[in-house]
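Saturday, quiet lab. Running sequence design on the structure tokens for the scaffold JK sent over.
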């Protein structure tokens, strides 16, 4: 099978579909913008690569000044380490012998940091790392109000003591993801909620320090809270991911970063005057945060999807002039889960294809 890679210079409307189109100028400017904001706030950037799943983008973030990347899963981390990313944090629990062995394996080629919340897991990590003669960085996940994972300050003190005494482990600090606040549309509410969450996180850091243990890393933030969390005294780094491309959901929160991502499809059927059928479907765009926003044609709307079809309502005469073979462009509501469906980004500058960017982290959920 020959892979479809367009020739550089191909006009965007001639790209084969369905495809993800990334405006390279906008994505690069988003990377620079977060880094500049972090520099100004005096915090580090450790971008979450669960959004882009691609070493191409991780290297651009590192070149802009990021101190490493986050990966949600060991499988994503393997992709990043293989591509030469020198430091990877997994701000999630890595559970089970098989995954821990892979994590320890990665520590031979990169500095690895992993989150924990349970004493047994600390023992398992320590046993595997010390048996391999490796060193794993460990951070404790604090529940800052999202009520997903993580312990409270008292639990963190106990774990920190255990980690410090565990061979093969290096206690690096703590993290807390304020995921319950990042997409809040109202800025003042978002700020109040995020600051409450960060008070829990920095309070836990203070408790650990009061027990005589150094806390170097205090890691937090999603895209929606970068400029709130980044200003909280005691937070040392931001782990935002979505800012790189933005998606329809985040664009309803703010436009601090530009919209770089779209999914392009082709009209394959025009049997009804008021509707067009295009060649993208649930296998090329996600719907977990709702139906995509229409970019072009303007007076049209995504109505429904099946696996490989999407029905588009055409709302005025101009939209109804759409013909079989014409292109339709939409912005997915959730970038991360859409990107995970594709093998390449089609990188475009000034409306012309520049390069295909592989997404080797797609589907790496183990
Ligand atoms: C642990 C963790 N950190 C950071 C993020 C940041 O995400 P975003 O910038 O996409 O809001 C996420 C998102 O799911 C996350 O789970």
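Result came back. Writing it out in full:
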């Amino acid at each position: 099978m020959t892979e479809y890679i367009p020739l550089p210079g191909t006009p965007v409307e001639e790209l084969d579909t369905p495809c993800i189109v990334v405006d390279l100028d906008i994505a690069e400017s988003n990377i620079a913008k977060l880094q500049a904001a972090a520099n100004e706030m005096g915090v580090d950037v450790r971008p979450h690569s669960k959004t882009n799943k691609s070493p191409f983008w991780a290297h651009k973030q590192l070149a802009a000044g990021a101190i490493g990347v986050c990966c949600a899963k060991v499988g994503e981390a393997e992709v990043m380490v293989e591509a030469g990313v020198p430091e990877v944090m997994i701000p999630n629990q890595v559970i089970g012998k098989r995954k821990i062995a892979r994590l320890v394996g990665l520590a031979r080629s990169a500095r690895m940091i992993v989150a924990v919340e349970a004493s047994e897991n600390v023992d398992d990590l320590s046993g595997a790392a010390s048996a391999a003669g490796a060193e794993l960085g460990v951070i404790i996940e604090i529940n800052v109000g999202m009520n997903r994972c993580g312990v409270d300050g008292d639990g963190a003190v106990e774990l920190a003591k255990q980690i410090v005494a565990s061979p093969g482990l290096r206690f690096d600090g703590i993290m807390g993801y304020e995921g319950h606040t990042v997409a809040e549309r109202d800025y003042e509410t978002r700020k109040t909620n995020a600051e409450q969450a960060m008070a829990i996180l920095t309070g836990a850091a203070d408790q650990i320090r009061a027990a005589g243990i150094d806390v170097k890393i205090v890691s937090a933030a999603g895209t929606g809270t970068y400029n709130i969390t980044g200003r909280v005294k005691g937070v040392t780094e931001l782990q935002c991911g979505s800012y790189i491309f933005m998606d329809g959901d985040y664009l309803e929160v703010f436009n601090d970063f530009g919209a770089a991502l779209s999914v392009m499809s082709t009209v394959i059927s025009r049997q009804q005057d008021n509707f067009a059928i295009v060649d993208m479907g649930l296998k090329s765009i996600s719907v977990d945060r709702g139906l995509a926003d229409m970019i072009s044609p303007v007076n049209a709307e995504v109505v429904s999807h099946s696996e490989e079809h999407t029905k588009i309502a055409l709302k005025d005469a101009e939209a109804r002039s759409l013909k079989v073979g014409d292109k339709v462009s939409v912005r997915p509501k959730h970038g991360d889960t859409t990107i995970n469906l594709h093998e390449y980004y089609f990188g475009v500058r000034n409306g012309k294809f520049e390069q295909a960017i592989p997404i080797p982290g797609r589907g790496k959920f183990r």
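Notes for JK: The chain has two domains: 12-20+256-358, 24-245. The pocket of pyridoxal-5'-phosphate is lined by residues 48, 51, 91, 177, 179, 182, 222-223, 239-243 (CB under 6 Å). Ask whether to fix the surface positions before the next round.
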